[in-house]
Amino acid sequence: DHRATGGGATLDQAEIDRLAAALDDAALNAAALSRQSALDGAPVADAYAVQRSVVRRRLDRGEQLTGLKMGLTSAAKMAQMGVDSPIWGRLTDTMAVGDGTLSLTGRIHPRIEPEVAFRIGRDAAPGDAFGDVVDAVAPALELIDSRYEGFRFTLPDVIADNTSAARYAIGPWQPVPAQLTDLAVTLDVDGTAVQTGSTAAILGDPRRAFDEAVRLADEDGLRLRAGWVLLAGAATAAEPVQAGTRVRATVDGLGAVSVEVR
Ligand code: 0L1
Ligand code: MG
């Protein structure tokens, strides 16, 4: 049987790998791709199979998984895409911003959004509660960079494209606060606020992003591992970003993370 494994996938593995190679090449060459009609009407299982293959190519080049991310976690973004469930993607070490410098080299049309990040203290299993597994919280920035022309895509397209994941920066880790439900979030560029929101925009409570990540990744046979990061999702819309600016995300009570964009 040459069908992809995983519930409900319909494309064969050769087609999945062909779509993955096109997305991976688009990322490597910073060249936007026309959307992939092969995924039109495809079940999300097909799209996640393409994502798995895209990330497999990265791992084959020596990258390491560093965590997972949730996307489309706000009611506004879900409504825009006509879905009622968030999506998830994979993070690798080359996406992590280590030294506060965020280079745009190799990006297509980058946008940045303020997020909340969780540190995974021990390997997670289905049914684990947030408090059993998450041992620290931090403000975070996510740079998303759709590999599709015009940042336009369907739900299966963006799942296949590893949920537009490109780079991420994590601020200082903090003890998990008593509540995370309604913390003010600001994205500023060169000291001017360009987006404001609340952590309530992240599934009503960012802790729910943990439950969703555990549940959705398990459908793909993947579990959060000790030492990994989980990006819970954006609290505001994403902003286009330019070289020569300083971008900062502040989450009330958690502090801030900033990057020098080059
Ligand atoms: O991290 C995100 O919420 C991005 C999910 C994909 C949608 C987009 O690229 O805008
Ligand atoms: Mg995001």
From TrEMBL:
Keyword check for Lyase: yes
Residue ranges of every copy of the Fumarylacetoacetase-like C-terminal domain listed in the record: 101-261
Species in which this protein is naturally found: Prauserella salsuginis
Entry-linked Pfam families: FAA_hydrolase
Lineage: Bacteria, Bacillati, Actinomycetota, Actinomycetes, Pseudonocardiales
InterPro entries: Fumarylacetoacetase-like_C (IPR011234), Fumarylacetoacetase_C_sf (IPR036663), Hydratase-Decarb/MhpD_sf (IPR050772)
Gene3D superfamilies, A to Z: Fumarylacetoacetase-like, C-terminal domain
Position of the signal peptide: none
Keyword Lyase: yes
Protein name: 2-keto-4-pentenoate hydratase
Keyword annotations of the record: Lyase
